């Protein structure tokens, strides 16, 4: 069996894998990526957040992405009935990037993978990790190519960026359920000829259809728009028929989508994804670190997935470099805690969204500008800014604010009656 030696083996050529590979390679180490699929390949996760730009920049990817002409994204809009809450990232509280992109992931991920390959990192496509043996922090990984040929890769360190593949958690029984309720998504790409009806395309829209059920609308620069429904599996079970029949019935059932997307041409048959939330107790171990979706993917509502993938890989890559240089790394303090800080901040917002707390805040008339800008920062992905009270107190601040709004409105309406 063929054997090769590298300093760092990266599993997966998605945003997590390519960001980590590029940063470690730039520090002078021998890196190799193994990727199960042939690229371009479809993956969901099309709306980025401004916070991802810093990681993409450090990885050296920004110019190559710019050349692709993806749709620039300046904000996010939330809609419920006739009410609209519009966030513009320029108004965010935390200093940093104020824009990003809405991307077809097949093209975006191929751009990142091609760029890292052109820097000198080999990417072995259609090559699947099937086994890993650790000896201290050194490892021997068995991979299998599409023709069934097996070979081994000896590495001083492994970055697992395998996304939904969850390679290391699965091989070593580290899987744990997330505390979020299982949800389902039904989505497609649409030929969006009536886009001019809406204030788009430079932002994404999340439409509240009913409690716990919402719709994403993500316009691309090609005139195609990604549109997906997310809700409890029981919600979808009420609609009979094929996936396309259910999809079209849902487009018809929501006034916001009815007119614009009636009889819309679909680029592909609607697809289903469900029960995506999973995690592990520890995001690192002797000789490996987990980054991106392998750590935990929460929910699509705040487009946090790719940003958390890029930022966790940016952080992990620097620690891997430190470790390879023989310096001490406190993985708990330097990796686990900051990664969880980001994930848990988004978790509070995801929970507040499904509980309806954010409806109360988002759709309040005459919102306080400072508060809106602080929440805007979270929606832009700045979930590590401890100067922002809506980050620092993420688990209590939203509930407290919603309660205050409800009480004030109650008082106002009772004084109007008097
Ligand atoms: P991935 O992009 O999944 O890349 C992992 C790679 O590893 C894949 O290419 C895979 O083929 C490879 N791999 C897997 N197993 C193996 C193996 N055994 N050997 C070798 N290679 C392997 N995120 C956003 O930021 N914005 C959104 O709008 C958004 N919408 C979403 C909507 C839905 C319904 C869902 C479920 C998720 C959404 N996400 C969104 C999340 C997003 O999909 C992920 O967070 C993101 O793709 C994570 O990137 P990654 O690099 O960690 O993993």
Automatic annotation (TrEMBL):
SUPFAM superfamilies reported in the protein's UniProt record: FAD/NAD(P)-binding domain
Superkingdom, taxonomy of origin: Bacteria
Protein name as catalogued: Tryptophan 7-halogenase
Domain FAD-binding residue range list: 6-170
InterPro entries given in the database record: FAD-bd, FAD/NAD-bd_sf, Flavin-dep_Halogenase_NPB
PANTHER family (UniProt xref): FAD-BINDING PROTEIN, SLR1998 PROTEIN
Organism: Chitinophaga qingshengii
Signal peptide positions on this chain: none
């Amino acid at each position: 069996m063929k054997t090769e030696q590298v300093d760092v083996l990266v599993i997966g050529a998605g945003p997590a894998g390519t960001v980590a590979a590029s940063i470690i390679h730039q520090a002078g180490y021998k890196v190799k990526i193994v990727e199960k699929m042939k690229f371009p390949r479809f993956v969901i996760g099309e709306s980025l957040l401004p916070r991802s730009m810093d990681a993409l920049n450090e990885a050296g990817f920004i110019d190559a992405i710019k050349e692709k002409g993806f749709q620039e994204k300046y904000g996010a809009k939330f809609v419920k009935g006739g009410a609209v809450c519009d966030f513009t990232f320029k108004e965010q509280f935390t200093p940093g990037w104020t824009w990003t992109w809405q991307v077809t992931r097949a093209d975006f991920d191929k751009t990142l993978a091609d760029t890292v390959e052109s820097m000198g990192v080999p990417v072995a496509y259609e090559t699947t990790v099937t086994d890993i043996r650790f000896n201290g922090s050194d490892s021997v990984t068995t991979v299998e190519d599409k023709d069934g040929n097996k070979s081994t890769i000896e590495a001083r360190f492994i970055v697992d960026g395998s996304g939904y593949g969850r390679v290391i958690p699965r091989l070593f029984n580290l899987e744990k359920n997330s505390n979020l309720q299982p949800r389902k998504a039904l989505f497609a790409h649409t030929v969006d000829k009536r886009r001019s009806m809406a204030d788009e395309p430079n932002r994404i829209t999340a439409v509240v259809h009913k409690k716990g059920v919402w719709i994403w609308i993500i316009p691309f620069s090609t005139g195609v728009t990604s549109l997906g429904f997310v809700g409890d599996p029981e919600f979808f079970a009420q609609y009979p028929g094929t996936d396309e029949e259910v999809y079209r019935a849902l487009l018809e059932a929501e006034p916001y989508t009815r007119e614009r997307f009636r009889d819309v041409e679909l680029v592909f048959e609607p697809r289903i994804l469900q029960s995506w939330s999973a995690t592990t107790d520890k995001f690192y171990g002797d000789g490996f670190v987990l980054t991106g979706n392998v750590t935990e993917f929460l929910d699509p509502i705040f487009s946090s997935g790719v940003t958390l993938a890029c930022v966790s890989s940016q952080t992990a890559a620097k620690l891997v470099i430190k470790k390879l240089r023989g310096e001490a790394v406190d993985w708990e303090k330097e990796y686990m805690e900051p990664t969880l800080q980001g994930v848990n901040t988004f978790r509070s917002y995801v929970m507040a969204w499904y509980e309806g707390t954010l409806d109360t805040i988002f759709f309040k008339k005459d919102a306080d500008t400072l508060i809106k800008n602080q929440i805007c920062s979270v929606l832009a992905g700045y979930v590590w800014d401890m100067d922002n009270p809506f980050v620092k107190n993420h688990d209590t601040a939203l509930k407290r604010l919603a309660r205050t709004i409800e009480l004030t409105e109650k008082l106002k309406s009772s004084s109007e009656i008097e």
